[in-house]
Design goal:
The complex is a heterodimer. Helix content of chain A is about 45%, strand content about 10%. Chain A has 15 helices and eleven strands. By secondary structure, chain B is an alpha/beta fold. Chain B has two domains: about 170 residues, Ribosomal Protein S5, domain 2, CATH 3.30.230; about 230 residues, Rossmann fold. Helices cover about 40% and strands about 15% of the residues of chain B. In chain B, strand 15 and strand 16 form a beta hairpin. The relative contact order of chain B is 0.10. Classes of the chains: A alpha/beta, B alpha/beta.
Chain lengths: ~375, ~525
């Protein structure tokens, strides 16, 4: 049954896009057909209305025969715009995709009372990753579904945090949901399938193309109540998503960064144009202040070792350690530069750093020591 | 030899580092004048006929008439080189009675190359040849005068250096040198032992690098220097052989033999006195690195035996070539096998490698000039395979020293930096002594920390309980493999040895863990 539905969905999407039929028109056809099941009959009855419809039906049958050997995994499915589980927020955008293909169980979590999209650069700094981790972790505690683009960097971090926290997460892809792009996210995508869903408007087997991604961004913006940009340097693709979000009336939120590094330039642009400035998730407008699904999500969260990361108060650090922490607050550094700036010898510095690492206040990122954990006060 | 028109003389061929005694027989038969050489010789040996003929003529002797046949035994062994010129000429002259040996003359071997006018030239491998002749019980050897310094290192062999064929004929017939056995003065060699070196003089501000190199030298730990172009990786590497303890006599002989065979012996003659430092170009081939050839010859890592093998730009070397180093790093020698031969070369070297941390090289710089993303960094560093990377005990991140900072460092006057170098050198030799003492209690031959293989490293390395929990905590957090964990203990042991502490303490573990940094591209955990 599912396979038949998927084949029809794929054949319809392919034939309609080859004829450049817009999504609005496809939606009308689907409405008349009462969903994917009645689509073939509907196309047959419409066939004589115009030469274009005739051609559509011909191509549809042709594509359908091409999908003969198609064998999707059991968690794959397609959902049409008339289905009751179709993400409702998308309906209020200007070009809702008529059919969404997906893999995973929790497509319905997109209809939760609050959904947020977290996006950012593919080449993040340590700061960007930490910020994403911190904010996503708080949102996971409140059971908020996190939507992102499944790309490297910030997107991947957002998904990963949601998964380790035990919350639902949805990745919207610019390729078919059975295609893994980027390749290193193969295992992450498998986890997302179990904890949420991979969603795409492109049929199975579609390879990533440059022009797919701006189109994908409109879905990212359409699916949520608010878009959160955690780190984006200049000329970032996240600006496109933020633009769509503003058009659709979603709240655009951005996290400020250092003006020295230039890695948050786009975030600052967004703030300049009126985006909400975010320090903690309570700054996000209309965010639920209590867990959505009762207490259950908290329990899951606390079971994962990830949440037990000690967030130490700073008062039990020694004087040397405090000096190092203050130094690292400004920039990542090497051992040599720390020992020179703090006037300690190399051995003592190494000991302090090892202690700070075991307290979770310092970690190594790309070969340098960086400040990590939550900055209190 | 009472047979007429026949003579037999010993010489020595080289296969790999070993010498094989070769018997050269010459027989003069009736027939048309011809001169034939048999016994699997290469071009140099076949051409030796012309050199020998000319040298005999120009030394005032006559080349015998008739058919002259020379045979090199064992005939199955491929032989090469020009060292058989001199014994061949002596055998030819003796077999036609132009040289008469005394009745009870001792068996005498000879080697050396002849020039057309009858001079005897230097050949490489004198030390190896003499050592294997000695093993065969031969006590008298005639060879080039240029090899005399090398030959002095071999006791119980009476070596007679000659500079012309005529002189060789005299010695061979039993007339000893008019000078007698003048002991070659060994005085001038020791002159450079005076402390005039200043290895730290050209390094400014790389404290972390100097410390890491000191640890590497003290425990023989493989080390990887990672840093931006021009931050001083090569200078640091070249310091290491200077701060290593001096060679022992046995080691010096061992190295000299390798160098003599491969033609790298010091120009002045004599033994190798300083630790080798082999700096290779990154286009090096597998054969050049580990050895090979039709007749086995040692590669760079054998030439670096007991010294430093420095591979610069290690990420640019072909991965296949690099991975060939895994075996010698583990075992300390190389076993080469081909269809025709197999050979084992020693290769116990201190492995020092250097590379840029990413394609542009500026990944570790704080100013953030690097624009390489994680995937690019991973691609760049994946040229070093995981198993090989695992074998680097120390991974050091170096950054450029600011020009401002460099100027502000007081112009290191050479006496303080020389003093510091001597101090470091002393620290390292004390650490070596400590390791040797520990190993001798267990009866181990490989005493250096990186090489010690014992079933109970925790006990052997004397880790205090606190330090052990500390180390286990770090290992858990960093998800270190078992190999990396013990490598961290080894480094900590070396650090404690440098400090002359009996037990490993937390501070040693902490410092060791710093050099066990994971690859820069690895994401922070969670």
């Amino acid at each position: 049954m599912t396979v038949a539905r998927l084949r029809i969905a794929m054949a319809f999407t392919k034939s309609a896009s080859s004829l450049r039929i817009p999504h609005s028109e496809r939606s009308i056809i689907l409405e008349k057909a009462y969903g994917l099941e009645g689509l073939q009959n509907q196309l047959l009855t419409m066939k004589d209305e115009s030469p274009r419809q005739n051609e559509l039906y011909r191509r549809f049958l042709n594509e359908l025969s091409h999908t003969d050997g198609f064998l999707p995994t059991t968690d794959s499915d397609a959902i049409s715009i008339v289905h009751r589980d179709y993400p409702e927020r998308l309906l209020h955008t200007d070009q809702p995709p008529s059919i969404l293909f997906y893999r995973g169980k929790y497509i319905s979590s997109l209809n939760d009372p609050f959904v947020i999209t977290v996006i950012g650069t593919r080449n993040p700094s340590f700061y960007g990753l930490e910020v994403t981790k911190k904010l996503c972790k708080e949102m996971v505690r409140r059971g908020i579904t996190i939507v992102s683009g499944g790309a490297r960097g910030i997107d991947g971090q957002a998904h990963r945090t949601a998964i380790t926290g035990g919350s639902a997460t949805v990745a919207v892809l610019g390729c078919g949901v059975d295609v893994v792009y980027p390749k290193e996210h193969a295992s992450l995508f498998e986890q997302i399938v179990h904890r949420g869903a991979l969603v795409s408007e492109y049929p199975f087997g579609t390879l990533p193309r440059k022009h797919h991604f701006p189109a994908r961004n409109r879905i990212l913006a359409g699916l949520c109540d608010a878009v959160l940009v955690t780190e984006a340097s200049s000329f970032s693709g996240t600006l496109i998503t933020a633009g769509f979000a503003a058009d659709y009336g979603r709240d655009v939120c951005a996290v400020p960064g250092s003006i020295l590094s230039g890695t948050s330039r786009s975030c600052h642009d967004l703030i300049r144009e009126g985006a909400v400035i975010i320090e903690s998730i309570d700054d996000i407008p209309r965010i639920p202040s209590h867990p959505i699904h009762g207490d259950e999500s908290i329990d899951i969260c606390c079971l994962s070792p990830y949440c037990n990361q000690p967030e130490m108060a700073q008062n039990d650090v020694s004087k040397e350690e405090e000096c190092i922490l203050n130094l690292l607050a400004s920039a990542p550094r090497t051992l040599r530069s720390i020992s020179e700036q703090c006037h300690l010898d190399l051995r003592k510095t190494a000991l302090s750093l090892a202690n700070l690492q075991s307290k979770g206040l310092v970690s190594l990122y790309r070969g340098l020591y960086v400040r990590s954990g939550v900055v209190s006060g | 030899m009472s047979v007429k028109n026949y003579h037999r003389i010993c010489s020595c061929a080289l296969t790999g580092l070993e010498g094989v005694v070769v018997e050269i027989e010459v027989s003069i038969l009736p027939g048309l004048p011809r001169f034939e050489v048999t016994g699997r010789g290469d071009h140099a040996i076949r051409e030796s006929r012309d050199r020998v003929r000319a040298a005999i003529r120009h030394s005032g002797y006559n080349f015998p008439k008739g058919r002259v046949i020379a045979s090199y035994a064992p005939a199955s062994l491929p032989k090469q080189g020009s060292a058989f010129d001199l014994p061949l000429a002596l055998a030819v002259l003796t077999s036609c009675d132009q040289v008469v040996r005394m009745a009870k003359a001792p068996e005498t071997a000879a080697f050396g190359e002849l020039s057309l006018d009858g001079h005897v030239r230097y050949v490489h491998g004198a030390l190896g040849r003499l050592l294997s002749l000695k093993e065969q019980g031969i006590r008298h050897v005639i060879g080039p005068a240029a090899c005399e310094r090398e030959a002095n290192a071999v006791d119980s062999i009476r070596y007679q250096g000659v500079s012309t064929l005529k002189e060789a004929v005299l010695r061979y017939s039993g007339v000893s040198s008019p000078k007698g056995d003048v002991a070659i003065a060994s005085a001038p060699e020791d002159a450079h032992d005076l402390e005039i070196f200043d290895p730290f003089g050209m390094i400014r501000g790389q404290e972390e690098g100097i410390r890491a190199c000191t640890i590497a030298a003290a425990g023989w730990h493989p080390i990887l220097l990672m840093g931006a172009p021009g931050c001083g990786k090569t200078s640091l590497a070249s310091v290491i052989p200077e701060i290593l303890p001096p060679l022992t006599v046995d080691e010096s002989l061992e190295i000299s033999r390798i160098y003599s065979v491969s033609g790298h012996a010091p120009r002045s003659g004599g033994l190798v006195k300083s630790r080798p430092f082999r700096h290779t170009h990154h286009t090096i081939t597998c054969g050049a690195l580990i050895g090979g050839g039709i007749i086995p010859s040692p590669g760079e890592c054998t030439l670096a035996h007991r010294g430093v093998l420095f591979l610069d730009e290690v990420t640019e070397i072909q991965p296949r070539v690099l991975d060939a180093l895994r075996e010698p790093l583990e075992t300390g020698h190389i076993h080469l096998a081909r269809a025709e031969w197999s050979a084992t070369f020693p290769a116990d070297f201190l492995f020092v490698a250097a590379c840029n941390p990413c394609r542009c090289g500026y990944l570790l710089e704080q100013k953030g000039q690097c624009r390489c993303d994680d995937a690019a960094v991973r691609r760049h560093l994946s040229r070093i395979s995981g198993p090989l990377f695992d074998r680097f005990d120390l991974v050091v991140s170096l950054t450029r020293v600011d020009t401002q900072e460099m100027i502000s460092i007081p112009d290191t006057d050479s006496t303080t930096s020389t003093m510091r170098a001597n101090e470091t050198k002393k620290l390292i030799s004390n650490a070596w002594a400590k390791q040797q003492e520990r190993a001798s209690r267990r009866g181990l031959t490989n005493f250096l920390n990186a090489k010690v293989r014992v079933p109970d490293p925790e006990r052997y390395f004397a880790v205090s309980d606190d330090a052990m929990t500390f180390a286990a905590d770090i290992a858990d957090r960093r998800m270190l493999s078992v190999r990396s964990f013990f490598s961290m203990l080894r480094i900590a042991r070396t650090i404690a040895d440098l400090e002359q502490h009996e037990y490993i303490r937390e501070i040693d573990i902490a410092e060791a863990s710093h050099y066990k940094a994971r690859l820069p591209f690895v994401m922070p955990q969670n």
